[in-house]
Design brief:
- It contains seven helices and seven strands; from the N terminus they run αααβαββαββααββ.
- It is an alpha+beta fold and 333 residues long.
- The chain has three domains: 2-109, no CATH class; 112-175, Orthogonal Bundle (Helix Hairpins), CATH 1.10.287; 181-328, Heat Shock Protein 90, CATH 3.30.565.
- It has a five-stranded mixed beta sheet with strand order 2-4-5-7-6, covered by helices on one side.
- A hairpin with a 3-residue loop joins β6 and β7 (320-328).
Length: 333
């Protein structure tokens, strides 16, 4: 589909270029031959006004000269238009490719996302189906086994619910950007502590927030969700014995947040991919057997971009991981 679109767009570009080139050539040819004929007509009156025979001979010479120059000019313009067609075709193809490249990337990303989502949705469904089929074949199925099966299926339903909720959040952040309003640091940190309180207690983790007071333009709910995702990530992949540190510094035009956690770190090969949807490291993170779908950091990135900000990650193997988030103080900046 993209190749067809590139070909069509290239054709239209070339068509426009050739229309302009041919129109320019026709105008140039007519103007040149007209001016040449006008200039040669003046010559007899200057050089041959007393020689009637010479004037007649010169008329023939002038016409032959006009015809000769016309043929030469026509040939030159034809070669010029062929060169324009060749060069313009190449340039048009390059421009068409560049024009459609974002669309092509979006289509590929959507297709990949759909395929990944279908795979992730199919996995728990397949697990549930297999368990139920095995039980249906078992004639000696007990009440305890039934309870165990229901608990297992309930866990898969929870996983599906969590996945669908995250997918909805991703879609919502894409389709309906939130209105950014003035938000204070105190309100933000209060919301964060409320959201992660049970998570910290459950994993016996500690969160330390050190920051100056400030206000900036943001959507409180989605920005709170951003830090909940990062803190949840830090708990999953970090050392619970060491505290998670969240700090913020007010710069001239933006707020720079940093979330630091100690732990095994992120493989350097994975750093450039961790914000991709459904990406999970096979080499480092999978060793921890952490449940998840690889959507959290993708959602975090979308939230930051919705705030016209920037998020990045740095990691030292076996030591710590630092997530840096820069959010403009005002949408006007």
């Amino acid at each position: 589909m993209i190749r067809s679109a590139v070909a069509q767009l290239t054709f239209y570009y070339v068509l426009i270029i050739m229309i302009l080139s041919i129109s320019f050539s026709i105008i140039l040819f007519n103007v040149s031959t007209t001016e040449l004929s006008r200039g040669l007509r003046k010559q007899p009156s200057i050089f041959f006004q007393d020689q009637i025979g010479a004037v007649s001979t010169y008329d023939q010479f002038r016409q032959a000269r006009i015809d000769e120059i016309g043929i030469s000019l026509r040939s030159s313009l034809l070669l010029f238009n062929l060169a324009v067609l060749f060069v313009g075709g190449g340039v048009s193809y390059i421009l068409a490719k560049r024009t459609l490249e974002p669309i092509e990337n979006a289509i590929e990303s959507q297709s990949r996302f759909t395929a990944d989502a279908a795979h992730e949705l199919r996995t728990p469904l397949t697990t549930m189906q297999t368990e139920i089929e095995v039980v249906l074949r078992d004639t000696n199925f007990t009440k305890d086994e039934a309870k165990e099966l229901l608990e297992s299926n309930l866990e898969e339903v929870r996983n599906l619910t969590a996945l669908s909720n995250t997918l909805l959040k991703l879609a919502k952040s894409n389709d309906s950007p939130q209105e950014l309003k003035c938000l204070s640091s105190d309100t933000l940190y209060k919301n964060i502590r409320t959201r992660v309180k049970s998570l910290l207690v459950q994993h016996n983790a500690k969160l330390i927030i050190s920051s100056e007071k400030f206000t900036f333009d943001a959507d409180g709910d989605t920005l709170t969700e951003l830090f909940v995702i990062l803190i949840d990530n830090a708990i999953k992949y970090g050392e619970t014995k060491k505290p998670i540190k969240l700090s913020a510094i007010k710069k001239q035009k933006y707020i720079e947040f940093k979330l630091i956690n100690s732990g095994q770190g992120i493989n350097p090969k994975d750093l450039s991919h961790i914000f991709e949807r459904f990406y999970r490291s096979d080499l480092s993170r999978s060793k921890l057997n952490v449940q998840g779908y690889g959507l959290g950091l993708a959602l975090a990135k979308q939230i930051v971009e919705m705030h016209h900000g920037y998020i990045s990650a740095q990691s030292t193997a076996g030591k710590e991981t630092i997530f840096s988030i820069k959010i403009p103080l005002s949408t006007l900046s």
